[in-house]
């Protein structure tokens, strides 16, 4: 008898649980339908993107002692929005035009009269024999511009955000070696969030460096799994002259990467951005009936297009110059945060918090 009662009680409890779960699921569906009907989620997202709300969030998340400065810049972002600046253009679309493009870029960068070396052309000409083309790698016009840019400024070291196969790190390292030699006086720190390469999980990030450019291995330091915050561990404040960002292109990731590395770049230093036409190219491909192998993300494109300070376009690669006072980046960043994020909605809160956190280091 007691066992019978126990089974009955167990059956009854099971039925109650099922009814409870069914009621819970029904309520969830009702709430979801109501939110969709009244567009509650859209309304919340729209409010979050209001300039006043973003500015208040920046002040609330600012470190103690810096809130007044953040507030001042936040007010400026609302009251005196800076228009996007126009870009100087220097596209190098073929090896035959490399010398002319190099000279033009040297003039733009304040190094008029600078000429490329024969070794530069020899190395660039050898790339077709060295490499295999992988999705996401920079194309010829991009690495012509990258090579010229690094060679002209000849920084002691460069940090790269986004390693992928390691091809662009090798391009930078080769330019530094021609400027400073291969004895370790200069090098590239390349940072990637993935241990395995994002386009081939069977191979490590940076695999193309030892395979295609073995002579450059000593000049490249690979840091995985790391993100742009790791720059604070390998660089001093205001130390760097050039940084290359070629990681997650979904807005606001390029903005976040830039803000995270900006404290370690000197005033007037340069940040190179890849895929500044990526979104537009993907959209045009889709409109033309093609199926692009990439998602049309606009993060790098919007960052470059809205940049209010000096910038140079090399086609799908570009360079933006940091202002003399880095806190001038704060109003720009807050305005960029009002653009709808391309990253998944469930990460939006985390993204906003990370952006707010990065602003404090600019004061």
Shape: globular
CATH topology of the largest domain: Rossmann fold
Number of helix segments?
Answer: 15
Number of individual domains: 2
Architecture of the largest domain, CATH level 2? 3-Layer(aba) Sandwich
Radius of gyration in whole Å, from Cα? 25 Å
Strand arrangement, major sheet:
1-9-10-8-7-2-3-6
Determine and state the CATH class of the largest domain.
Answer: Alpha Beta
CATH superfamily of the largest domain: Vaccinia Virus protein VP39
What composes the largest sheet?
8 strands, mixed
Helix content: 40-55%
Amino-to-carboxy terminus distance = 77 Å
The helix/strand series, from N terminus to C terminus, equals: HHHHEHHHEHEEEHEHEHEHHEEHH
Spans with pLDDT under 50 lasting ≥5 residues? none
Structural class, from helix and strand content? alpha/beta
Number of strands: 10
Question: Averaged pLDDT, please?
Answer: 89
Strand content: 5-15%
Main attributes?
363 residues, alpha/beta, Rossmann fold, 2 domains, eight-stranded mixed sheet, two-stranded antiparallel ribbon, 10 strands
Q: Secondary-structure map with pairings?
A:
Layout: H1 2-37, H2 40-48, H3 51-61, H4 67-79, E1 88-89, H5 98-108, H6 118-130, H7 140-153, E2 157-161, H8 167-180, E3 187-191, E4 196-197, E5 200-204, H9 208-212, E6 220-223, H10 231-234, E7 240-245, H11 253-261, E8 265-274, H12 278-287, H13 299-306, E9 311-313, E10 317-321, H14 329-336, H15 348-360
Parallel strand pairs: 1-9, 2-3, 2-7, 3-6, 7-8
Antiparallel strand pairs: 4-5, 8-10, 9-10
Task: Walk me through what this model shows.
The protein is globular. It contains 15 helices and ten strands.
């Amino acid at each position: 008898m007691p066992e019978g009662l126990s089974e009955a009680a167990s059956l009854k409890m099971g039925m109650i649980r099922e009814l409870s779960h069914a009621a819970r699921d029904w309520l969830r569906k009702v709430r979801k339908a109501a939110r969709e009907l009244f567009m509650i989620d859209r309304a919340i997202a729209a409010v979050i993107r209001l300039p006043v709300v973003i500015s208040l969030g920046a002040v609330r998340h600012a470190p103690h002692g810096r809130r007044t400065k953040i507030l001042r810049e936040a007010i400026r972002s609302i009251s005196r929005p800076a228009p996007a600046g126009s870009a100087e253009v220097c596209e190098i679309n073929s090896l035959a035009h490399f010398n002319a493009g190099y000279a033009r870029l040297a003039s733009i960068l304040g190094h008029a009269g600078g000429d490329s070396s024969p070794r530069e052309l020899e190395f660039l000409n050898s790339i077709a024999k060295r490499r295999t083309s992988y999705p996401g790698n920079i194309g010829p016009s991009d690495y012509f511009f990258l090579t010229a840019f690094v060679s002209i400024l000849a920084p002691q070291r460069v940090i790269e955000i986004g390693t992928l196969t390691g091809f662009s790190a090798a391009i930078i390292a080769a330019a530094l070696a021609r400027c400073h030699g291969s004895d370790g006086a200069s090098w590239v720190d390349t940072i990637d969030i993935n241990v395995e390469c994002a386009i081939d999980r069977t191979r490590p990030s940076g695999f193309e460096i030892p395979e295609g450019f073995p002579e450059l291995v000593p000049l490249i330091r690979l840091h995985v799994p790391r993100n742009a915050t790791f720059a604070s561990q390998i660089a001093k404040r205001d130390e760097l002259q050039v940084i290359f960002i070629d990681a997650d292109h979904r807005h606001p990731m390029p903005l976040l990467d830039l803000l995270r590395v900006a404290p370690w770049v000197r005033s007037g230093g340069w940040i190179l951005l890849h895929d500044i036409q990526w979104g537009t190219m993907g959209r045009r491909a889709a409109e033309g009936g093609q199926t692009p192998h990439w998602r049309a993300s606009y993060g790098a494109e919007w960052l470059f297009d809205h940049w209010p300070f000096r910038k140079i376009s090399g086609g799908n690669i570009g360079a933006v110059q940091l202002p003399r006072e880095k806190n001038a980046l704060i109003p720009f960043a807050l305005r960029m945060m009002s653009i709808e994020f391309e990253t998944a909605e469930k990460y939006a809160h985390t993204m906003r918090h990370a952006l707010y956190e990065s602003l404090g280091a600019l004061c």
